[in-house]
Amino acid sequence: MLSETKMINDEYPLTPVPQARLRHWFSVAAISALVSLSLPTFLTGIEVGQSLSFDQTLAAIYLGSLILTLVGGVSGTLGVKYRLTSYALIQASFGGVGARIVNLAFGASLVGWFGVNVDLFSDACIQLLGNESPHSAQILLIEICAGAIMTISTLLGFLWINRLSMLFAPVLLVVTAFLMNLWIRGDSDLAYAKISSELSFSNAVSAVVGAAIIGAVILPDITRYVTQSYGGWMVSIVCYLVIAPPVMLIAAGAMSHSEAKELLDLMMISGLGLGAALIVILGSWVLNSLNLYSAVLSIRASVPVTTTSKATVGLGLLGICAATLDITSWFIDFLIYLSIGFIPVAAIMLVHFQSRPSTTQRIKGLVLTAKTNNRALLIWAMSMVMAMLELEFNLSVSGVLALDLLVFSALTYAMVRPR
């Protein structure tokens, strides 16, 4: 295992990545591709597909993906330009206490994702054990062991996660092919026959955005390693526009033409057999290492006195606790609230960097302001309140909550931002 000092220096939580550590954008895109091929992506497609017709599902998935591509492209380019983590960039946008609040919110959300993946991992393990009625103590033991393995993997650092993703991405491509075959065998007219839950088009788009909005905002965490100036856009396009939409559509189509009720059952019906459980286990492991890695960066940026190993272990334990709450049972609500919470953060950060040349100089010299940007915090709060009102009263200007939220937060911050 790497020493504590070497891990901190290797990951550069508060300093620019040196030239010697840069790599081609395609290598970094492999990590984002794994996120797009991940199990939560399949789950999102299934939930949206079971609630809408095919035309609506297609439109919701691609509209949400376009929003993510825009956010990820601009934020990823900031990572390439400044070679800093998203959390250092957020500090320049929100300043002082504001940045700490945002970063801690990111960390908490990533811990939630950690819980989702530990849940998937434990379900797959139970399936492999052939136990249809597992005891709660058995589930808890599996979740603790799974969380521990994922935490240890994260302690090994970014390069280890990169190697795992490069190995596992082709496996998930094969899974996608199996699901596509199941969809094609089911019905050639591509019309979804089962509508199993109530989900409006607006909420479906928000769910698609929420499934990846954290990844789009924190894309600088990995694009800071990219050599090419256009690499941020390429990574975002590959992740959110080329790979994710077809994966969601295929998962939705396969589920609509099967008798499966869960993702793991669907994968087994598709012809993968018990290998499906192994795929879920490995996929959850790799993705959770990336989630925990990003969560640790947020804590290290907000609380620099915290060591990398302590933050990793602490957040891993919190993620295990989240898994015990059965977080996957309210998956769609989780995604919608993620979009409400973090679309405004993305809009504020992007407007801030497009309009503040003085910020560029501060970031290059790492003289990040300690003064809280109260206007950014105010717009963030106002945007979330506006979104909650739209959600509560089923109102929307554009017809899509996520789009309303993005435009409102960007325009209002552009009007009141510090000059």
Question: Given the helix and strand composition, which structural class is it?
Answer: mainly alpha
Kindly provide the radius of gyration, computed on alpha-carbon positions and rounded to a whole number of angstroms.
21 Å
Q: What is the residue-averaged pLDDT? A: 80
Count of helical regions: 18
CATH superfamily: Hydantoin permease
Q: So, CATH architecture?
A: Orthogonal Bundle
Topology-level CATH name: Hydantoin permease
Reading the helices and strands in chain order gives HHHHHHHHHHHHHHHHHH
Description:
The chain starts with a helix and ends with a helix. The protein has 18 helices and no strands. It has 419 residues and is mainly alpha-helical. The N terminus is likely disordered. The protein has a single domain, classed as Hydantoin permease, CATH 1.10.4160.
